[in-house]
Amino acid sequence: xxxxxxxxxxxxxxxxxxxxxxxxxxxxxxxxxxxxxxxxxxxxxxxxxxxxxxxxxxxxxxxxxxxxxxxxxxxxxxxxxxxxxxxxxxxxxxxxxxxxxxxxxxxxxxxxxxxxxxxxxxxxxxxxxxxxxxxxxxxxxxxxxxxxxxxxxxxxxxxxxxxxxxxxxxxxxxxxxxxxxxxxxxxxxxxxxxxxxxxxxxxxxxxxxxxxxxxxxxxxxxxxxxxxxxxxxxxxxxxxxxxxxxxxxxxxxxxxxxxxxxxxxxxxxxxxxxxxxxxxxxxxxxxxxxxxxxxxxxxxxxxxxxxxxxxxxxxxxxxxxxxxxxxxxxxxxxxxxxxxxxxxxxxxxxxxxxxxxxxxxxxxxxxxxxxxxxxxxxxxxxxxxxxxxxxxxxxxxxxxxxxx
Length: 404
Ligand SMILES: [Zn+2]
Known about the structure:
Blueprint: H1 4-17, E1 34-42, E2 47-53, E3 60-64, E4 69-75, E5 78-79, E6 93-102, E7 105-112, E8 116-124, E9 132-140, H2 143-154, E10 174-179, H3 196-213, E11 218-221, H4 231-240, E12 245-250, E13 263-268, H5 274-281, E14 289-290, E15 293-294, H6 300-332, E16 335-343, E17 355-359, H7 366-372, H8 375-398
Parallel strand pairs: 1-5, 10-11, 10-12, 12-17, 13-16
Antiparallel strand pairs: 1-2, 2-9, 3-4, 4-7, 6-7, 8-9, 13-17, 14-15
Helix pairs in contact: 3-8, 5-6, 6-8
Bound molecules: zinc ion.
């Protein structure tokens, strides 16, 4: 007996073999999102399809074999794409086509040249001056893995993309832990010889052990000893390692008469990286990778879009981790009255690495200083951060964006 799903798939394939339907006059009228532009970027190592949408939409991406395809299902979309959209391939993609599948449902079918893995599939909401964007990132795979991930998906009613082979150590997602200061830069100092650079280094080492204990992640420290590393140097370490997360650790002093104390989690504030965007759009600085995509051959407009996408994606993941971190820390440590803040810290400016700065406490507070120098506190607090890291990755895997 032929399964209904197979019949449906065959019918869909037939329907989608036809050229994309022309944009209809009434399109977009019934509140349907309109697809206004599309582009393929990248190469055989990573190929990205970006589709501009007038409004956000929920999508589901999955693979089909023989021939190899990636399918994106979404609510009904009015496709008003340029004539040539989808006809020419690039990187792993040979072509793509799109259309309305049934009332209320649309589908995009991406023909690929070889087995691929869906590394990312998401839609970013529209923000000021930028449309909503659908992003599909494909990376090379092999037939066996391709078929396995398909089988795993079929066995899973949620349709989640499951990875089957246990990752090799070098493939593990990297977490960069950045103990602040070091060497000639001692950072803050507190009562009884408390030294920021030492406190944060001890904390970082313990945190590394805890995060690596599960065997699912690799930790890179920005300094292995008491040496000076510049702020751009720290960001570079995170980017060079294609880190999935960066946690910068500090324990500064505050000039305040009210005894401010407690841990605080900082994320990068709003428009802080516009200058970097401009710099990146400049051809001279284009010999750069962003989110695994080589920008050097892209026209300025596309480089700008890719940079903007990376930044928005990064800031969404950063916010997610920062909230989770506050939640976990609350159980183990004294928190600042206003524990989640944003600021323009230089070390948080990697456009494609979700990054937070954790002030463990303030050395200007006698209570904080005492805690931060205690072994029991360090044990508890590192455990809380490690748990927040675990939860963060678990959520990303559930969302189908496991990180690099
Ligand atoms: Zn500091």
